[in-house]
Amino acid sequence: MVASNLETGEPLWFGLGRKKETLDEFFASQLKASQRRRIEAACVDMWPAFKSSIEQWAPQCAIIYDKFHIIQHANQAVDEVRHSEFHRQGGWRRKLVKGKRWLLLTRWMNLSEDSQKDLNQLFRLNRRIRKAFWMKESLEGLWSQPNAIAAATYLDSWVSWLRWQRLPSFEKLARMLLDHREGLSNHYKVRVRFGVVEAINGNLRILLRRGRGYRNLRYLLLKAQHMAATKTELVVFKRAA
């Protein structure tokens, strides 16, 4: 787990594990009480332990759920549909599904014209995969609404439209989003730069890949700070002015 400063882009602390006690250690050892009171927002994934720790140490803090982790869940839901349809189909239709994972997990706007044609061919023959892909694409609209009320309405419409699509993996995703509705709407109260959060994740992945693993967390932290990257993986904080 990494805690970072969202305003400066500086990784602050690395800890082992995803338990509440791990984040508790950061709050207790790295921040004074006055600093904890000044935390305005925390950007985290939807792991319950993080929410529990933040509510204990910085109860005034707005918890915002990281967009990129939510999209990862949506991509996983798409891949589950692709996987089930691959085994359900036979003959040449199965061959058409095979090898399309990367295309299905890529934003439509980022695909080349030829790749879009390949997907359209698949969509004409498999309605479930088509519906799963566009459900994933339409979820992006949750973060482009004018305010929290509009975002809540958008989420309700998205869930309502899903109700008749017979996509169990997306129904599971919808329940998760509804259970975390407040953390989604908090994005409209305190605008977190999700791109900064993702940049931190990317820089850490690069460091770990280059180093083939680090045994010393302090050394890894210094390397991450030297890269002038921002925050890190699961917990990113923004301090009030």
Describe the fold and architecture.
The chain is of the alpha/beta class and 241 residues long. The chain folds into two domains: 2-67 and 188-239, no CATH class; 68-181. 60% of the residues lie in helices and 10% in strands. It has 13 helices and five strands. It has helices at residues 20-30, 33-37, 48-57, 67-88, 91-97, 101-104, 113-125, 127-139, 148-162, 168-179, 181-185, 194-211, 217-226; strands spanning 2-5, 10-14, 39-44, 62-65, 235-239. It has a five-stranded mixed beta sheet with strand order 2-1-5-3-4. β1 and β2 form a beta hairpin. α4 packs antiparallel against α5 (91-97), α4 runs antiparallel to α8 (127-139) and α7 crosses α8 (127-139). The longest helix is centred in the first third of the chain and has 22 residues, at 67-88.
What are the main properties of this structure?
241 residues; alpha/beta; 2 domains; 13 helices; 5 strands; globular
Task: List strands and helices in order, with pairings.
Layout: E1 2-5, E2 10-14, H1 20-30, H2 33-37, E3 39-44, H3 48-57, E4 62-65, H4 67-88, H5 91-97, H6 101-104, H7 113-125, H8 127-139, H9 148-162, H10 168-179, H11 181-185, H12 194-211, H13 217-226, E5 235-239
Specify the biggest β-sheet.
5 strands, mixed
Please tally the β strands and state the result. 5
H/E topology pattern: EEHHEHEHHHHHHHHHHE
Tell me the number of helical segments per DSSP (H or I, 4 or more residues long). Answer: 13
What number of domains?
2
Biggest sheet strand line-up = 2-1-5-3-4
How large, in whole angstroms, is the Cα Rg? 20 Å
Portion in helices: 55-70%
Low-confidence stretches: 228-237
Structural class: alpha/beta
Terminal Cα span: 26 Å
Mean pLDDT: 83
| Relative strand content | 5-15%
Shape: globular
